[in-house]
Amino acid sequence: MKLLVFTCLSLFVLGSLTYGAFKSAISSPQRNENTVTKTFVDPIENDDSLGNKIVNFGMGLLGTPYVAAGCSKNGFDCSGFVFYVYNNFKIKVPRSSSQFEYFGKEIPISDVKKGDILLFLSPTRNVIGHMGIVTNPKGMESDFIHSTSGREMKVVITSLKKPGYNRRFVKAIRVL
């Protein structure tokens, strides 16, 4: 009987409160011997391990050749690489780097975490033209994995300290 009352009350509470209010309501419950406490966690918002998994998956693609418009293990362009990696985790992101200009949540570079995305200007035009995934968050000295059409012509890890990327850096975004 107590379980039935608890279940009905839980359904009423869930239906009556917004997610944020519900989260607040359960974060500091009054406890007694008969209270069942369950913590609800938004798995994407609070799971740093997802960022680690994204980075580890991307690291498995190091050395994959750069291919213009490529989006497979046979070869990637920069946005094809990010698209492929995130898609592996069923996370929808745009396919083109220019479509990232207003996508995700902009975050200060000092707050980046593994799995966040860095956006850069094109080397030849004043538009978003390159991107990579943060592998080692250290603000403006963060490392990121990306598919480069530069000298290496493959998926590599680069430091944001590198002048060619540092001066073209536009912003960091979070989509997790």
UniProtKB/TrEMBL annotation:
Gene Ontology molecular functions: cysteine-type peptidase activity
Keyword entries, A-Z: Hydrolase, Protease, Signal, Thiol protease
Organism superkingdom: Bacteria
Domain NlpC/P60: from-to ranges: 48-176
A Gene Ontology BP annotation from the UniProt entry: proteolysis
InterPro entries per record: NLP_P60_dom (IPR000064), Papain-like_cys_pep_sf (IPR038765), Peptidase_C40 (IPR051202)
UniProt record similarity statement: Belongs to the peptidase C40 family.
Official protein name in the record: Cell wall-associated NlpC family hydrolase
Organism field: Flavobacterium glaciei
